[in-house]
Specification:
202 residues, mainly alpha
């Protein structure tokens, strides 16, 4: 499987990286982290150019997450409107979900990239909650940049050791990512609580 991605990236360069990431982030079974690590390795071997590779990775990630958001916004709202009464989900609960995203849930769009399977889900939920596109884009696109740059750079520095690291990331990535996500949520909650306490102080 890895050799297939190496061949695709070598033959088609940034265009292949962009297309594969769009498909992977949108929910298809593409090992995104491994793909980015391979891209970094190929940069180190002078088989890909760094600038176009980083840009293609960020744009592909952003495009894929936007597709998930738009699917959630279209299909999610239709489900709620048509079957909300059966699911006991009143239409006005959409506003409550939007409020949650405004306070804390939007950060899951940024840090959720590091949790395989979660990044796609957070975008769908954001779309179904009718989160404003500008707010979605701010946090989701920032996450796309940080996530893609992190794994490409990791591959660049790993070199020939990349396969061991990629295997461990695929094996433990979900657990590690969930831990990071929970730690980030806890830190944000603590900061929010502290800010509220300081405002109430005379």
């Amino acid at each position: 499987m890895s050799q297939t991605f190496i061949d695709a990236l070598t033959a088609h360069g940034s265009l292949a990286l962009f297309g594969l990431l769009v498909l992977g982030i949108a929910g298809l079974p593409v090992p995104d982290e491994t793909l980015l690590i391979i891209a970094g390795v190929l940069i180190g071997r002078s088989r890909l150019h760094a600038g176009p590779t980083y840009v293609a990775a960020m744009l592909g990630s952003a495009a894929g997450i936007t597709i998930s958001y738009l699917l959630g916004r279209a299909a999610g709202l239709i489900v709620i409107q048509r079957h909300g009464h059966r699911l006991r989900v009143p239409t006005d609960s959409i506003e409550n979900v939007r409020a949650v995203f405004r306070r804390a849930g939007k950060w899951s769009l940024t840090f959720g990239y590091f949790v395989p399977g979660i990044r796609h889900l957070t975008a769908l939920v954001a779309g179904a909650a009718n989160l404003e596109f500008g707010l979605f884009a701010t946090f989701a696109y920032a996450g796309a940049a940080v996530w893609s740059m992190t794994f490409i750079t990791l591959g660049l520095y790993l070199g020939d050791r990349w396969e061991i690291a990629a295997h461990e990331i695929e094996r433990h990535g979900r657990v590690a990512g969930i831990v990071v996500l929970l730690m980030g949520a806890a830190a944000l909650a603590w900061m929010t609580r502290r800010r509220g306490t300081s405002r109430r102080s005379p």
